[in-house]
Amino acid sequence: MSSHILAVAVLFLIFVVGTVRQVNLGALALVAAFLVGPLVFGVPVDTVFAAFPANLFLLVLGVTLLFAVATVNGTIGWLVDRCTGLIGDRRALLPGVLFVVTAVPVSLGALAPAGVAMLAPIALRLGERYAVPARLVALMVVFGATAGNFSPLNPLGAIVEGTMQRAGLATSPLFLYLAGFAVNVGVGVAAYLLNGGPALIREQRAVASRAPVPAGPPTPDTAGTADAGDAPADPAPARPDDAPAPGSVADRTLTLVLLVAVAVAALGFGVDIGICALIAAVLLTLVTPRSSAGAMKLVGWNIILLICGIVTYLDVLQEAGTLDVFGQLITGIGSVGLAAVLICAVGGLTSAFASSAAVIGATVPLLVPLLAQSGADPVPVVAALAICVTVVDAAPFSSIGALVLSNAADADRPRVNLTLLRWSAAMVVVGPVLTGLVLVLPATGI
Question: In the chain, where are the structural domains located?
Answer without folding.
Answer: 2-229+243-444
